[in-house]
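Query structure, 380 tokens:
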């Protein structure tokens, strides 16, 4: 009898352990993007180099969830960025520089998460831009990634809400704390956004504000040394729409970034370094993007984007014209090869020292720059 009870007890414990294991999951995932890039002008010379993340930043991460019952889950993501060409950590050497958050997700009410996270412009609007997808990526970003559609920086100390899908409508918001006693508004951030899907039609909009971003006033705040602009305030907003018919998708995206008390455009997480500096000035970038993609076959796609950027910087009014073309061939569900070309021309720069600079590359010594990349992506 005792032996029977012991067997039954062990069986019950094993069943409970199996059930608990089935209710929890941890997934290792990642993406590796490596390529060879030819640039006609980088600091006055042509360059042929190996690049990492010309389209999508290389990364690996852990994603997990635990079923708490009643449609509620505990969730987390720890995501690392790295350079496949030299093995170095991305995002200025942070261990989990791309994302690091934990929170609760409800099937009925949405998710609340805390940590280092993407802002709402990245979450909702970027997927409608060629730079926010795998069809153009890093090098297709608007000048200096001024609107952060290519997520050059993330928001630290942030709490985020993301709704469930209400018949095609999704919305959310984020707040990044300054984490500084007596300086509540110094280096804080907040954003909000929404998207709507109705059959082949998609629409999205977003808003982001950074206070005292990239300054020395509070280095432990919401945005640190990967921010694009060193400034007193940055306000970015935008909207976009696309429409899919048959094998084609066409879209329009508009964004505007207004920067107050601009003191510098520094080296962002994308790798752009330009050495420009400004004294107590302001800037505005208005970006108009027309994009499209077409699936020739289930394995072959082509995509393109044209972006016109009208700006006001330090007393001059630079105007950028940028064209991105890409063709991609899927070798399998997880592996593809691509060929991408980007052309950028900037005019009306005066004596500002601004030249053409494709995102992720060093600045040209002239008003034009061309980059061609042949690469491979592997997902796991």
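Result returned for the query:
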């Amino acid at each position: 009898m005792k032996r029977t009870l012991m067997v039954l007890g062990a069986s019950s414990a094993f069943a409970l352990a199996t059930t608990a294991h089935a209710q929890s999951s941890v997934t290792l995932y990642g993406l590796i993007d490596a390529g060879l890039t030819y640039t006609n002008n980088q600091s006055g010379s042509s360059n042929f180099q190996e690049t990492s993340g010309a389209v999508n930043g290389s990364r690996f991460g852990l994603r997990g969830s635990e079923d708490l019952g009643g449609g509620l889950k505990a969730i987390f993501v720890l995501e690392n960025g790295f350079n496949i060409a030299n093995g170095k950590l991305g995002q200025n050497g942070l261990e989990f520089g791309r994302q690091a958050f934990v929170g609760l997700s409800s099937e009925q009410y949405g998710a609340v998460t805390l940590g280092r996270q993407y802002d709402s412009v990245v979450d909702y609007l970027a997927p409608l831009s060629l730079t926010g997808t795998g069809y153009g990526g890093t090098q297709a970003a608007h000048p200096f990634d001024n609107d952060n559609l290519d997520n050059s920086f993330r928001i630290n100390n942030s709490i985020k809400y993301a709704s469930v899908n209400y018949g095609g409508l999704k919305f959310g918001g984020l707040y990044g704390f300054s984490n500084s006693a007596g300086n509540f508004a110094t280096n804080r951030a907040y954003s909000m956004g929404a998207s709507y899907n109705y059959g082949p039609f998609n629409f999205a909009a977003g808003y982001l504000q950074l206070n005292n971003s990239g300054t020395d006033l509070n280095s432990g705040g919401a945005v640190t040394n990967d921010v694009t602009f060193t400034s007193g305030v940055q306000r970015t907003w935008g909207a976009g729409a696309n429409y899919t018919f048959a094998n084609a998708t066409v879209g329009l995206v508009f964004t505007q970034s207004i920067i107050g008390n601009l003191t510098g455009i520094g080296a962002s997480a994308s790798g752009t370094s330009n050495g420009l500096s400004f004294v107590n000035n302001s800037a505005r970038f208005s970006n108009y993007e027309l994009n499209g993609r077409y699936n020739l076959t289930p394995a072959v796609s082509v995509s393109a984007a044209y972006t016109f950027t009208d700006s006001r910087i330090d007393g001059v009014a630079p105007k950028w014209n940028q064209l991105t073309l890409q063709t991609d061939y899927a070798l399998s569900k997880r592996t593809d090869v691509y060929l991408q070309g980007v052309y950028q021309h900037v005019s009306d720069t005066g004596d500002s020292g601004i030249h053409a600079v494709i995102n992720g590359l060093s600045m040209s010594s002239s008003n034009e720059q061309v980059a061609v990349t042949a690469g491979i992506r592997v997902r796991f």
